[in-house]
Amino acid sequence: MTISHERERLRYAVIGAGMAGLLAGIKLKEAGEDFTVYEKADRLGGTWRDNRYPGLTCDVPAHAYTYSFAPHAEWEAYYAKGEEIRNYFELTATKHGIIPHIRFDSEVVSCIWGDDEGCWTLGLPTGEQVKADVVIAASGVLHHPRMPDIEGIDSFAGRIFHSARWEDDAPVDGVRVGVIGNGSTGVQIITALHDRADNLVHFQRSPQWIMPVPYFRYSEEEREAFRRDPALIDAIRYDEEYWSNIHRFTRAITEVDGPDIAMVEQLCLDNLENSVRDSELKEKLRPDYRAACKRLIYSWSYYDAVQQPNVVVEREGIARIEPEGVRLKDGRLQPLDTLVLATGFEADRFIRPTTVRGRNGASLDDAWSVRPTAYYAISIPEFPNFFMLNGPTSPVGNFSLIDIAERQWDYIEQLLEPLRQNKAQAVEAKAEALAAYDERRIEAARTTIFGSGCSSWYLDATGVPASWPWSYEAFADAMAAPVMDDYALTPALEPATAA
């Protein structure tokens, strides 16, 4: 038989101190591991640190958007504001003792695997190099702002900035404000500023389907009840109706002719028809693609906001930006004092622009030359002991990415066991496993609602939906246990002895 022995403690590098990086840090600390979290900014929080625009709200119910091990009684409303969420992550990181393990202002600019050493070398901007046996890439998706390519963008005489780089002193009260972009960010900014700006113009390349959702604030009495009895929080987080809706939504995405997507489409259509009174405005707000082809917008107040007399929905294309405002293709000028670019993110970057080189100098840029991908969103061939949280091909949609990351971590921990027990020096997905996964995933993705004929950040450079194309149940099943035959294990430097 084979007798295994524990190897010297592994060194872990976690890249990013957002939601997923903090999760990894907490789990590694619980396991007594040697780890450091490298964060490029001076504060933790990731997406919820970078974004602080007016109206920022998570579209997942607050009590469902928490770590399973860290319920939070203090949410002010059914849907939490961005600042509350960032504070929750800071509170959770502090409670679990993660802050001392975070190196702030420490962007990882390179990550190089040493074939001879059998470990990673991380390069920092100072020139410092640090070693790690295992890298957890938790750099997120929505952190590289996408700047629009509009003529004259640098000529604007007022204040102009991306929504993820919000300028707190920018004038928005009693002035003329324009918002370019119509995803969740643009919609939330409009709802927040409609009663503050003198004139508010929402520039839309294409309108969005709006899913009506409930909104209510929690009273102090309700929060006190949550504090006394966490079971009340669990009743919301694990509410049967909530999870039924999640499963129904993923079925709607994958069964494009089924009853679930028909229900989604009808709810969105009824919301438009019943909420917007003016027929001309209603047609401006009517999309020409199927509901859920783009990421659904959840809002309880957008249609009310755009029907205010000081708000204009502008569907005419933008010709250029001038010092005084936005010139439209029909020749009209929309004069503005402040212009917000709610134009989204470069969602295919992930850990890049960090230089990542794996076995035999393999380049991540080369591996992702067609599209970013990873075996079950976790592992990439030729990049040993390199694991991703919320990586390419992960599920995306109107559900909690915290739950996605927790399931992925459970999967990663099982891959770590051969390393921790010194049964292997390295583990990585096999090339043939990734190729087979990609073939199945791409074929399925083309038939999802995301591939039904709209432009969205869900699509990769070839026009294929980049996300998980199967049900939520299928994802949970896949994360329950890795198929180890699909992974290549490099023998340990000091292999277990036989007896």
Outline the biggest β-sheet: 5 strands, parallel
Oligomerization: single chain
Total count of helical runs of at least 4 residues: 14
> Which ranges are low-confidence, i.e. pLDDT below 50, for 5 or more consecutive residues?
1-6, 495-499
- Indicate the structural class: alpha/beta
Under the CATH scheme, the architecture of the largest domain is 3-Layer(bba) Sandwich
Mean pLDDT: 95
Query: Distance between the terminal alpha carbons, to the nearest Å?
Result: 6 Å
The total domain count is 2
Report the C-alpha radius of gyration, rounded: 24 Å
Q: Please identify the top-level CATH class of the largest domain.
A: Alpha Beta
What does this structure look like?
The chain contains 14 helices and 23 strands. By secondary structure, it is an alpha/beta fold. The chain folds into two domains: 9-142 and 348-498, FAD/NAD(P)-binding domain (3-Layer(bba) Sandwich), CATH 3.50.50.60; 153-341, FAD/NAD(P)-binding domain (3-Layer(bba) Sandwich), CATH 3.50.50. The strands form seven sheets. A five-stranded parallel sheet has the order 4-3-2-8-20, with helices on one face. A five-stranded parallel sheet has the order 9-18-10-11-14, covered by helices on one side. The protein has a four-stranded mixed sheet with strand order 7-6-5-19, with no helix packed on it. α1 (19-30) runs parallel beside α12 (401-420) and α7 crosses α8 (259-275). The protein is globular. The relative contact order is 0.15.
What is the element layout, followed by pairings?
Blueprint: E1 2-3, E2 11-15, H1 19-30, E3 34-38, H2 47-50, H3 82-95, E4 102-103, E5 110-114, E6 119-123, E7 129-132, E8 134-137, E9 159-162, E10 176-180, H4 184-193, E11 199-203, E12 210-211, H5 220-228, H6 231-237, H7 240-254, H8 259-275, H9 279-284, E13 297-298, H10 302-306, E14 311-314, E15 318-322, E16 325-328, E17 333-335, E18 338-341, E19 355-357, H11 364-367, E20 386-388, H12 401-420, E21 426-429, H13 431-446, H14 472-480, E22 487-490, E23 497-498
Parallel strand pairs: 2-3, 2-8, 3-4, 5-19, 8-20, 9-18, 10-11, 10-18, 11-14, 12-13
Antiparallel strand pairs: 1-23, 5-6, 6-7, 15-16, 16-17, 21-22
Helix pairs in contact: 1-12, 7-8
